[in-house]
Write a structure and sequence with these properties.
Helices cover 33% and strands 28% of the residues. The strands form 5 sheets. The protein has a 5-stranded mixed β-sheet with strand order 3-2-1-6-11, with helices on both faces. The chain has a 5-stranded mixed β-sheet with strand order 14-13-12-17-18, with helices on both faces. By secondary structure, it is of the alpha+beta class. Among the domains are: 75 residues, Dna Ligase, domain 1; 155 residues, ATPase, nucleotide binding domain (Nucleotidyltransferase, domain 5). The chain contains 11 helices and 18 strands.
Length: 409
């Protein structure tokens, strides 16, 4: 297997980012990050396409910059998807074992997987990912690899993510108008854990909350498998809008500057008499009461985190989170957010995630590098798929963490 280039792009509400990596035959699906390109996004609001032409222009510029920085041509790219009302549902495939040896063979595994992936889809929705959670023999024995084990029945449990078809087609079409073909689409919710949580955290049980500008998504991992995902059409832009409306800051830029410079998620340590200057001049000097500003931010964040907690509680997903909660995305940078999450989740440990050192100064030296978690995770997932495609056997490998599926047209 020769060295191969892999590219991934994330079209965020405020910024579009792309990474270029190389897959080496000695890395077993690992990837070396080679280049980064970013640009302010045009044509997107709350993670939904408002102008396909503007998005295509943005994407074209970012890809050209990535080609220049990486010194290679790029005609295929993997896409991070964060819009379209993401939903994750359980799926399963079952097959009876009828071979003379009464043990599970690879053909039985393939049959169960085909049955799992062939389960009915929802009208108006597009499947993005189908991922294996576990294998169960005779309805009670959970195993990692069922091949050559005695059983009468094999069940493979998995999870399917699906999104609104029109939203999905809009972003894929906008990218492909830049004359770069979309290879595979991955959700930010399922990619962020690989980008910002350690293997031990994913094995021991971890909730990763990915806070973007237009949306917030979450995923639960156990035994290094995604077992549940969720999505809220609420993000950092909503906080900015709350500030704009509450304090009449004049522009979204001035409201965003207030949030970034002075905002925090709790009222801890706030002097009720403190006032701060509006960071961006709107023609006259204006000051804002810091406690009032923090109260507005706290109200939105408290509501968002409580919605996630209630959904996890309703699905019995709060147990066995041995590694606690990890925050990712640009919203994770809000001061005191881990303390707020910790309080709402009844004392469960919460930290801001961390990317490994990528030997790329543009990211490694960036204090806000957690913004790249889902993009880097997508690059890793794409690398694993490429490594599997390069294997001598083309059969599905149960040792693989992800199965390539929908989101590819």
């Amino acid at each position: 297997m020769s060295t191969k280039h892999i590219a991934a792009i994330e079209i965020g509400t405020t910024e579009t980012r792309a990474l270029l990596g190389t897959l080496s035959p000695k890395m077993g699906g690992g990837v070396t990050v080679r280049a980064l390109a970013t640009a302010k996004t045009a044509g997107v609001r709350k993670s939904e396409i408002q102008s396909a032409q503007s998005v295509s222009t943005t994407v074209e510029g970012v890809i050209e910059k990535l080609e220049k920085n990486g010194r290679t041509d790029i005609n295929r790219i993997n896409l991070v998807y964060s819009g379209g009302d993401l939903v994750g549902i359980p799926i399963f495939g079952k097959t009876q074992i009828h071979n003379p040896s009464d043990v599970v063979e690879e053909e039985d595994v393939e049959t169960a997987i085909e049955t799992m992936c062939g389960s009915p889809t929802v009208s108006g929705r597009t499947t993005i990912e189908e991922m294996k959670i576990n294998c169960v023999l005779d309805g009670m024995r959970v195993v990692e690899d069922p091949c050559n084990l005695s059983a009468s029945e094999l069940t493979i449990n998995g999870i399917r993510t699906h999104v609104d078809t029109n939203s999905f087609n809009a972003i894929v079409d906008a990218v492909e108008k830049s004359e770069c073909e979309v290879d595979t689409v991955f959700t930010a919710a399922c990619s962020a854990p690989l980008g910002c949580a350690t293997l031990d955290q994913r094995r021991n049980g971890v909730l990763v909350i990915n806070l973007g500008a237009g949306t917030t998504s979450w995923s639960v991992s156990r035994n290094d498998r995604i077992i549940a995902v969720g999505h809220l059409a609420v993000g950092g832009d909503h906080i900015t809008n709350d500030i704009l409306c509450a304090f009449h800051t004049g522009t979204e830029e001035s409201a965003a500057a207030l949030k970034h410079n002075f905002g925090q998620a709790t009222l801890k340590g706030i002097d009720p008499t403190t006032r701060v200057d509006l960071p961006i001049n709107i023609g006259m000097k204006k000051t804002i009461n810091l406690k009032a500003l923090t109260t507005v931010i706290n109200a939105r964040m408290d509501e968002t985190i409580r919605i996630i907690h209630a959904e996890l509680e309703a699905k019995d997903l709060l147990e066995n989170l041995g590694a606690g909660i990890v925050l990712s995305g640009g919203g994770a940078l809000l001061r005191n957010l881990p303390e707020l999450v910790n309080a709402i989740f009844n004392g469960m440990p919460c930290i801001v995630g961390a990317l490994p050192n990528l030997n790329l100064p543009e990211i490694d030296d960036d204090p806000d590098r957690i913004r790249y978690a889902s993009l880097y995770g997508t690059l890793l997932r794409a690398a694993r798929i490429e490594a599997e495609k390069e294997e001598v056997s083309s059969k599905f490998s149960l040792r693989g963490f992800f199965k390539r599926s929908g989101g590819h047209r």
